[in-house]
Amino acid sequence: xxxxxxxxxxxxxxxxxxxLTAVNDVSIRNSWLRGGWLRGPVLxxxxxxxxxxxxxATRAHPNDGHLDVVSVATMNMRQRIIGWSxxxxxxxxxxPKILISRTTHLDLAVSAKQLIxxxxxxxxxxxxxxxxxxxxxAHVLIASATNL
Length: 148
Prior knowledge:
The relative contact order is 0.27. The chain has 148 residues and is mostly beta strands. The model has no long low-confidence stretch (mean pLDDT 85). Helices cover 7% and strands 50% of the residues.
């Protein structure tokens, strides 16, 4: 049984504050009608460093007490596709247009054109998002092969 951090998420959507918990990641990107991941700014805040089978934050660990923030501001479609394929092995960084930082708290204003995705669940019409690391708030049970 191993301790694991979670991400405390507070969003303001249509004037209502909603509190959620994320285990893996929170992303802010354009909606698919506006280009999705392929156009505009993309911000991914991750606890584990993994996103859809890719290691996007190579220093991340699920129990390190930090949020790892991956930011892509201006990058053309070709560079994004190459970066996504290189992220399988973590070779997408260093890249001059991909910024990775670490923090314990993040408070952001969100454009009405953007979409928030929290552990795979989409949230529209969000105007503000606050993310805080919550250390040791979950436990992961790993079964041995002999107990299966």
